[in-house]
């Protein structure tokens, strides 16, 4: 695992063609190693822009905090 922090929001397309949002929280242990907790949100979105707008409205996401996979 890399020691670089991951972006807190990941938008990915699932098998059915919908977009899903994963919210990640990064904490650091006593050796300053990142520990990442990922929570896949229940909502499904038709577009990545809709997922991004939801993250901004509900989680206070800002530009540059998103990754895609």
The residue ranges in which pLDDT falls below 50 over 5 or more consecutive positions are none
Net shape: elongated
Sheet having the most strands: 4 strands, mixed
- Name the strands of the widest sheet in spatial order: 3-2-1-4
Tell me what the structure shows.
The chain is of the alpha+beta class. The chain has a domain at about 10-55. The chain is about 15% helix and about 35% strand. Strands 3-2-1-4 form a four-stranded mixed β-sheet. Strand 1 and strand 2 (about 20-30) form a beta hairpin. About 10% of the residues are buried.
Summarize, please:
This protein has one helix at 48-59; strands at 9-13, 19-28, 34-40, 66-68.
List key phrases describing it.
4-stranded mixed β-sheet, 69 residues, single chain, 1 helix, 17% helix
